[in-house]
């Protein structure tokens, strides 16, 4: 009854609503129309975004990626980023593009750890309540005979390779069996990016499976082992598994858009900046088309 519910602690009511929104996918709004609890996000506070525009979260891990996003936003004529300090994180409000309200957050390298992509984005989903998470940035290529530095890798699927079973036979031969997830990126975002790449003429875009693990790969031997696990992989990086988990828990869309900066061996930083620029350029190109707004 309404008079009984009104006497319950606020926190109790929030978690009842959280359960409902998680299962039914509904959005609870205040009198001003601002979402309070959306898509299963934990109801810790009111979302940072306050406009009617579709909130999109851009997540990066490397300094060069962060710089590339800010430069692209400036080139688009977006206003000076507005800082939001929430908990352990600083979120940058970049403005509106293609009917979407853009936010930027930086995590540390890898999916694990207290500041890796998984922990950071679980917090960000709660704080911003975005409709989608897009991670632009840099990666290593795995098909040197078919790829070039600077070309973009689009995640049709990812494979989290850190979770595995290692067995050894009587002769001492070791067999590695991957046990990690192989999730597909959100069909809606994959559609928008695949089609958006058709009239983006900066460089070639490769669509396929991207490997993700917390290991910084700089070894031809280790790279060869990864290809044995997943021969069809087009490249690898370190944060996608965390992006996938955060998005899955919140029931929102996600995709990885990263450009090749090296080949997973004999690493140097020479190609990082142009690669990051290409990946971010494709992301802004797709957002400008307007297909991500809801």
Total of helices: 8
Helix/strand-derived category reads alpha/beta
Strand content: 25-35%
Read across the widest sheet, the strand sequence of neighbours is 7-12-11-8-13
pLDDT < 50 stretches? 10-16, 37-44
Q: Spell the H/E element sequence.
A: HHEEEHEEEHEEEEHEHEHEH
Radius of gyration from the alpha-carbon trace, in angstroms? 20 Å
Number of strands: 13
Mean pLDDT: 87
Instruction: Name the helicity range.
Output: 25-40%
Approximate shape:
globular
Account of the 3D structure:
With 294 residues, this protein is α/β, with parallel strands linked by helices. Helix content is 31%, strand content 29%. The protein contains eight helices and 13 strands. A five-stranded mixed β-barrel has the order 7-12-11-8-13. Strands 1-2 form a two-stranded antiparallel ribbon. Helix 3 packs across helix 8 and helix 4 packs parallel to helix 7. The longest helix is centred in the C-terminal third of the chain and has 17 residues. About 5% of the residues have low confidence.
